[in-house]
Write a structure and sequence with these properties.
By secondary structure, this protein is of the alpha/beta class. The protein is built from 17 helices and eleven strands. The protein is globular, with a radius of gyration of 22 Å.
Length: about 400
């Protein structure tokens, strides 16, 4: 018992938060000074052993299986774990499993890449509609202007922010890689009149969006193709890639950046919006195993290197890390609020284990992006294919931030 108590006390010291643990036999251990912020109840010796052996992965998977219960707010517990570096504890078992996951779910093979995408994104429009913004259903970081309190407004503002950066204009043709449920296509058409083509490999989303465009009388002005984003095969004036690069995979980063470059005509302008790490590091095994099969988070430096190799000039870089924490907070709140309705969609699929995994995913990512010691960020990188001339793109950022300026929306 003494080694367990010492282990817990060290975690509490590093986290700066007190907590309580109830052991399988009913014994209680308190770690840290002051009133406990949360409590963990281990219901089996196996769950305790898994936590000591595998750190956060052992604890989380025991929680998913109902062998550990939590008393108190989940966000406090996850934030404490991040502050203590509990997720970074060395574990040979975790390292080996993570390498096997990366190799076994690699997106190098297009059929596997499709299976990976469908595993997460084809849970159904009805599922996502219950907790994403309505009606656009943008499943990416929103843009929170000062005073904004609505997820719906923050997502519209994100799309408008990207449109201004790209200088999207009426009649221009652009490609939206990984277009999801088409929120960007619809909003950009409404505000700029630009003609968009969505590319998506998730069959369910493509079918839903194609039918939605037909119902709204927007096809073929706006269109969607079911294809891997490495197989677009034509050039556009502009390109938007929001939340795609995280699915490239370590070995496919060069190929995927080249595919982005190949989608643009010479002088074309593109936007990469993606999660990144500060410096090269392994992707979190929890995310890769339980949420995004085949996912891999690159370092900004790695992305920049590949962009240079492909002849892409970086025009602007913006970090929206803090915006993502707020977005995830709202997703987590809505997910919890609408859980009875989610479960009713398919009780066998959306069971208690699913709820625990997705709640940890949403709340944990919010704390990750909020963490003062975190190394995960969200960048928007604006680029041109080849060096931009003086008249090819504005010399200042006035058009991006002067929202009410003439031509700010590119119309």
């Amino acid at each position: 018992m003494a080694p367990v108590a010492a282990f817990l006390e060290e975690l509490a010291r590093r986290a700066g938060v007190a907590f309580e643990v109830v052991l399988p036999g009913g014994g209680r251990l308190k770690a840290g000074e002051g009133a406990p912020a949360f409590g963990l109840h281990f219901r089996s010796e196996g769950a305790l052993a898994a936590t000591l052996l595998r750190g956060h992965m052992g604890l989380l998977e025991a929680y998913f299986d109902g062998q550990v219960d939590l008393a108190g707010p989940l966000n406090r517990a996850l934030a404490a774990g991040l502050s203590a570096g509990f997720d970074l504890q060395a574990s040979v078992v975790n390292s080996v499993e993570n390498r096997l996951l990366e190799r076994g779910k690699s997106n190098r093979d297009r059929a596997q890449a499709k299976r990976n995408a469908c595993a997460h994104y084809d849970l159904g429009e009805a599922f996502y509609r219950l907790w994403l913004d309505e009606p656009l259903k943008m499943y990416t970081c929103a843009y929170w202007r000062e005073g904004c309190t609505s997820l719906e407004q923050a997502q519209r503002d994100k799309i408008d922010h990207v449109c201004r950066k790209l200088r999207l204009a009426r009649g221009e043709r652009y490609v939206d890689l990984g277009c999801g449920f088409g929120g960007f296509l619809l909003r950009a058409w409404e505000t700029t009149g630009a003609i968009g083509t969505g590319i998506n490999t998730a069959t369910g989303q493509v079918q839903w969006l194609r039918e939605a465009l037909e119902r709204q009388g927007l096809a073929p002005t706006l269109s969607v193709r079911e294809a891997d984003f490495r197989d677009v095969g034509e050039c556009f004036d502009k390109l938007v890639s929001i939340g795609v690069l995280e699915h490239a995979g370590r070995d496919q980063l060069a190929e995927v950046i080249q595919a982005h470059a190949d989608c643009l005509r010479p002088g074309g302008i593109g936007m990469l919006h993606f999660i990144d790490h500060v410096g090269p590091r392994d992707t979190e095994p929890f995310i890769r195993k339980h949420v995004f099969p085949g996912g891999w988070i690159p370092a900004l430096s790695e992305v920049m290197q590949e962009m240079e190799r492909c002849g892409l000039e970086v025009l602007d870089v913006e970090n929206l890390r803090r915006h993502y924490a707020l977005t995830l907070d709202e997703w987590a709140r809505r997910f919890a609020q609408r859980w009875p309705e989610i479960q009713a969609l398919d009780p066998a699929r959306f069971d208690e284990r699913f709820r625990r995994i997705w709640t940890v995913y949403l709340v944990g990512c919010a704390e990750l992006f909020r963490s003062p010691v975190g190394c995960t960020h969200l960048f928007q990188v604006l680029f041109s294919k080849g060096n931009a001339g003086r008249t090819a793109y504005p010399m200042t950022r006035d058009h991006v931030y002067a929202v009410d300026a003439p031509g700010a929306r590119g119309t």
